[in-house]
């Protein structure tokens, strides 16, 4: 059985409906410990994410820059390895010996070298290509993982269990860039969030709630699906060392945006007690969500949930929404579009223009010029929005 599993891991393939987070492609050769299979048979990995507290220190800044450009230096050209300046020595040799005309056919068109289709073709052409994927350590090989963990002290490491590739309906089990962006903002503005009561919608693995738990008084981390919520609860337990005494209470709860009420069934796991609902309505002043805008129906449901909850809160509330604008080519438009993002922006505008004489919503983007405390690509498609929800009566 072990040999079969190892063979499957060495020859990973993904179905057409598989979604893979870019976070793990960013540092492709980083080691990840596979700790178990979840309830639906998906491999679960344990990763350590180091917090760069000394972001003003030049060494830390260099660390971020090196990690951000690591992927670029690992690329290989089809004709061979590139040097550190991105030049292709082999191609340069060909051009020097044969001249520019060697790249043109008889009609003067540019010759395009195609990538070989099989491993035998690769060997025949003597082309060097790297297989780029995370190194997977099976459970029972923790000693190999300990060296990496020992490089970081407990106070600056976030440990997260997650999957790496899932169907679309299970993307909450992965770690996404927008969650890191929101976590960065929390750490940058930690004095502002100190002692707050916070609700996270679509918490997924719980990494953003864990970061918020380092400063907030109480965090309700919510999502749907017993398997996902169990993973989130495990991640909360793995990071108890980050919480300050008397703070950082993180409660993992079910909250389905497609339903109008909290789950209060005492027999259901992760249900709410009446006391917890009352505490949320009485004290919550911050709501947050990261990378949950990829389906129009779910986007609509999220904004309905936002309106319902903010309407029931005693105090005014600030909502933080982090997302990544994803570009897709569509046959319908015959162009590159961002349909999910466009729907998000339209719905956001509708919320701001809402006139029900009960609530006022003020929307503004947040500039991404704050410090980076986690290693990831802060690409230009990342955005962070703030919504101030105020009662009019």
From TrEMBL:
One of its GO terms (biological process) is methylation. Pfam families: Methyltransf_16. GO terms for cellular component: nucleus. It comes from the Eukaryota. SUPFAM superfamilies: S-adenosyl-L-methionine-dependent methyltransferases (SSF53335). Residues 62-96 have a biased composition (Basic and acidic residues). Interacts with members of the heat shock protein 90 and 70 families; these proteins probably are methylation substrates. Protein N-lysine methyltransferase. This is Methyltransferase-like protein 22.
């Amino acid at each position: 059985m072990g040999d079969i599993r190892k063979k499957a891991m060495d020859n990973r393939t993904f179905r057409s409906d598989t979604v893979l987070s870019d976070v793990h492609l960013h540092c492709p050769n980083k080691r990840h410990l596979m700790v178990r299979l979840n309830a639906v048979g998906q491999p679960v990995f344990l990763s350590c994410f180091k917090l760069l507290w000394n972001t003003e220190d030049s060494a830390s800044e260099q660390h971020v820059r090196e990690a951000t450009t690591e992927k670029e230096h690992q690329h290989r050209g089809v004709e061979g390895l590139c040097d550190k300046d991105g030049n292709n020595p082999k191609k340069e040799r060909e051009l020097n010996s044969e001249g520019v005309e060697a790249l043109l056919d008889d009609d003067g068109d540019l010759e395009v070298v195609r990538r070989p289709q099989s491993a035998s073709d690769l060997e025949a052409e003597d082309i060097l290509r790297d297989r780029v994927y995370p190194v997977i350590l099976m459970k029972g090989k923790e000693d190999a993982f300990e060296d990496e963990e020992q490089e970081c002290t407990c106070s600056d490491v976030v440990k997260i269990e997650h999957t790496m590739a899932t169907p679309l309906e299970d993307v909450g089990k992965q770690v996404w860039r927008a969650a890191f962006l929101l976590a960065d903002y929390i750490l940058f503005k930690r004095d502002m969030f100190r002692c707050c009561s916070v609700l996270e919608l679509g918490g997924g693995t719980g990494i953003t709630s864990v970061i918020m738990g380092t400063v907030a008084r109480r965090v309700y981390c919510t999502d749907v699906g017993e398997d996902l919520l169990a993973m989130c609860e495990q991640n909360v337990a793995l990071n108890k060392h980050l919480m300050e005494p008397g703070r950082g209470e993180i409660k993992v709860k079910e909250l389905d945006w497609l339903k109008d009420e909290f789950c209060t069934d005492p027999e259901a796991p992760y249900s709410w007690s009446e006391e917890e609902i009352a505490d949320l309505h009485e004290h919550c002043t911050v709501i947050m969500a990261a990378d949950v805008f990829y389906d129009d129906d779910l986007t609509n449901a999220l904004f309905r949930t936002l309106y319902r909850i903010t309407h029931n809160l005693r105090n005014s509330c600030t909502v933080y929404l982090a997302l990544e604008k994803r570009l897709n080519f569509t046959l319908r438009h015959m162009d590159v579009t961002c349909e999910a993002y466009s729907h998000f922006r339209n719905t956001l505008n509708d919320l701001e223009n809402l006139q029900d004489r009960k609530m006022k919503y003020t929307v503004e983007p947040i500039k991404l010029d704050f410090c980076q405390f986690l290693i990831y690509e802060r690409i230009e498609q990342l955005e962070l929005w703030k919504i101030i929800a105020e009662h009019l009566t």
